[in-house]
Amino acid sequence: TGPSYGMELIESECGLSSLQLLAHNYIKESRTKIVAVTGSVGKTTTKDFIKTLLKSKYKTASSPGNSNSQIGLPLAILNHFDLDEDVFVLEMGMTHPGQITKLVNIAPPSVAVVTSVNLVHACNFESIEDIARAKAELFSHPDTKLGIYPKEYDFGIFSTIGSSRKVSFSTTEKGADYFLVVQQDKMFLQIQGGLPVHFLLLNLPGNHNRHNFLAAAVAAHHLGMSWEEISLAQSTLILPERRLEIVEKGGVTFLNDSYNASEVSVKAALNTLPNPQG
User: Looking at residue 242, what is its pLDDT?
Assistant: First the structure.
């Protein structure tokens, strides 16, 4: 061991395992409901959307930024969780199989949301189905009551993982349990076995953010918010930093989407650009 520099040190054979165990034991002291969010793209935006919707009704906290790794998630729990929140929204990321399982064992979610499955970190997987299977680990904990997944990325995998109830959402697949339709200046949510719900169009750039909003809205509804409450809170949604930020400089309009780098994210940003004039 090295010098203590006047601090009281606790010896550990593995600092990472000890950090994760500390976060797990800390979160066990609370009855706060945990919402976990993962996905190849869209997880930070969806996490922030869920927090924003829920905080209009509940005391809600979330992991900051994209603190979603084997180190970042336990640090987020220890530094940003007061134990008295009604809901704590956590982003969970992975680059290899088995990593999501470790994270849900640290903070077992009551509601688990998968935003998307794409060829991100594809060098560590044999196929996109293997990526979906790794994402589906989010549903594996026995304490999870509900799993929410994107219908277009199912691959027949999400409904088979874990014992929780599963519901699907989509902006493209009509067979989803929750299907969002855009018509002129309104959005219509079609619910299997239920009446349609009307929303105003999102006041945010990027068609892909309708997908993220839908995932957040379904999660908020299953956590006790009415569709009317969600519709009222919708106007308070904002995008995370460096996601489709519009910046005006010297008469030139810039679209700052510099946070993202995956092919899917870059294409989504490019599709948001207006058509050239003249």
Answer: 63
Each residue's pLDDT tens digit, 22-59: 999 999 989 999 999 999 988 999 999 999 999 999 99
Tokens of 200: 């105003």
Q: Smallest Cα–Cα separation from 32: which of 113, 105, 108, 104?
A: 108
Quickly tell me which residue has 């793209």 as its tokens.
41
Spell out the SS3 assignment of 91-130: ECCCCCCCHHHHHHHHCCCCEEEECCCCCCCHHHCCCHHH
CB atoms within 10 A of CB 163: 12
CA-to-CA distance for 269 and 200, rounded, in angstroms? 22
Helix axes 15-27, 99-106, angle to 10 degrees: 40
Give me the amino acid identity at 105: N
- Residue in 220, 218, 205, 194 with CA at minimum distance from that of residue 57: 220
